[in-house]
Amino acid sequence: MQQIHPSNDSGTIPRMANLTGLANIVSELKAERSNLVTQLKHVDAALTVLGKLPGGQSYARPQRTVSALSRRRMAAAQRARWARRSSSGGAAGTAKPKRTVSASVRRRIAAAQRARWARVKSAAEHTPGNARPKRRISAAGIARIRAAAKARWAKVRAAKK
Predict the structure, then answer these.
(1) Hey, is 54 helix, strand or coil?
(2) Which residues touch 33 (CB under 8 Å, ≥6 apart)?
(3) Of the candidates 112, 136, 151, 157, which lies 20 to 30 Å from 129 by C-alpha distance?
(4) Cα(148)–Cα(141) distance, rounded to whole angstroms?
């Protein structure tokens, strides 16, 4: 490699043209790097979208791997939990037994329900049709409604004049 001396016979630095060419190369490399970064962002976005599709694996969050030793430890711990639950009764043993109702209580409940239905049916027989009679407006009520409507229209006509 040739060394550059600060001055020579002509007073200029030799190979200055090579330095300007080097600056051009550096600027071109920086531009190429920015283009590649943009393209990588597009590729990452596409991989993320494709990873979320059914059947694909997520690119953004890869699955964590568990060592064989850790898997054995987890399996042993789970077996111990199941053994404790099955031997001591666990959650299944602490549940209250299902309560049953005696035959005499069932007979009393059925008799009370029959009495309720008898009251409902007897009330329906005494009122023909619907329980509530149809409401009708009296002749005096219709006359008051007509008078109020005429008065409103009279005000509207008076306001237009």
Answers:
(1) coil
(2) none
(3) 112
(4) 11
DSSP 8-state class, residue 102: -
The reported pTM is: 0.25
Query: Encoding tokens for residue 34?
Result: 């920015």
68 confidence band (pLDDT: 50, 70, 90): very high
105: helix, strand or coil: helix
Residue found by looking up tokens 């069932």 in the block: 106
Q: Which amino acid is at 70?
A: S
**160 CB-near residues (< 8 Å, 6+ apart):** none
The whole-angstrom separation of Cα 61 and Cα 47 is 11
81-118: per-residue pLDDT in tens?
Answer: 999 888 876 555 566 788 899 999 999 999 999 999 99
Tokens representing 24 are 């051009």
93 touches 82 (CB < 8 A)? no
C-alpha distances (whole Å) from 71 to each of 44, 77, 78, 92 are 32, 10, 11, 27
Residue 47 CB partners (closer than 8 Å, separation 6+): 59
